[in-house]
Amino acid sequence: MSKQLAENLSGKAVMGSDGKQLGILYNVEMDVKSGALNDLLVSPRSEVDPDQLQFNSDEAGNVRIPVSRVQSVEDYIVIQQ
């Protein structure tokens, strides 16, 4: 993944490698000791059932997507499903 500023990622659309839009990036979780990024927290679109995705959800209903699944970041974030 190319270098991106966090402020440029906030609110970016997230879609699967199949072209289906999953939601909007809500936040990013990181390890504060190492600085490593862990997960993207994605607020799912209303028509997306989080239970049908292969990812876990947090207490607020955001989908937790491991950063290792990010394929590209351009106008939107593409994740491998």
Rg value: 12 Å
CATH architecture: Roll
Q: Estimate the strand proportion.
A: 35-45%
Q: Report the mean per-residue pLDDT as an integer.
A: 86
Q: Which class in CATH terms?
A: Mainly Beta
Secondary structure: elements and pairs:
Blueprint: H1 6-9, E1 13-16, E2 21-30, E3 37-44, E4 56-57, E5 63-66, E6 70-73, E7 77-79
Parallel strand pairs: 1-7
Antiparallel strand pairs: 1-2, 2-3, 3-5, 4-5, 6-7
Features:
81 residues; 1 helix; seven-stranded mixed β-sheet; mainly beta; 5% helix; single chain; SH3 type barrels
Give a verbal description of the structure.
The structure is a single chain. The protein is built from one helix and seven strands. It is mostly beta strands and 81 residues long. The chain has one domain (6-79): PRC-barrel domain (SH3 type barrels, Roll), CATH 2.30.30.240. Strands 4-5-3-2-1-7-6 form a seven-stranded mixed β-sheet, with no helix packed on it. The longest helix is centred in the N-terminal third of the chain and has 4 residues, at 6-9. The mean pLDDT is 86.
In summary, what is this structure?
The chain has 81 residues and is mostly beta strands.
